[in-house]
From TrEMBL:
UniProt-listed CDD domains: DUF326
Organism this protein belongs to: Novosphingobium cyanobacteriorum
Protein name per its UniProtKB record: Four-helix bundle copper-binding protein
Length: 135
């Protein structure tokens, strides 16, 4: 099963499928899950990981919201998609930096996922902004 295929099959998408945006939706969904899992693992650590937990949960929520907004294809709301992608990029950058400070394998994995998500959201953002400029 593929979220990209689901988006492509939407009646209002057709040949206008935005590959970068599809990738960003998929990675935002993955990033949300990885961040939530990292937050849970941080709770089990012996040291105080409260800041990492907070950062991961915030990032998970923003990534989830980004995926939901960006996968909607009925009508158009590109300005909101742009704002959401920008928020997701920033949340991922903050979470990546926080998780990179910790040696735990789950934090290192989360940092990598956040970097991938931020990169994909940046590529999608550029594509959506180009669509806005040409509209």
């Amino acid at each position: 099963m593929s979220i990209e295929a689901m988006i492509r099959e939407h009646p209002q998408v057709g040949s206008n499928y935005n590959e970068a945006l599809g990738r960003a939706v998929k990675h935002a969904m993955y990033c949300s899950a990885i961040c939530a899992s990292c937050a849970d693992a941080c709770l089990a650590e012996a040291m105080d990981m409260s800041q990492c937990v907070r950062t991961c949960l915030d990032c998970a929520d923003i990534c989830e919201a980004t995926a939901k907004v960006a996968l909607r294809r009925t009508g158009s709301n590109r300005e909101v998609i742009v704002a959401q992608l920008q928020a997701c990029i920033r949340a991922c950058e903050i979470c990546e930096a926080e998780c990179a400070r910790h040696d735990a394998a789950h934090c290192q994995r989360c940092a990598r996922m956040c970097r991938e998500c931020a990169n994909d959201c940046q590529a999608a953002l550029e594509g959506v902004q180009a669509e806005l400029a040409s509209a």
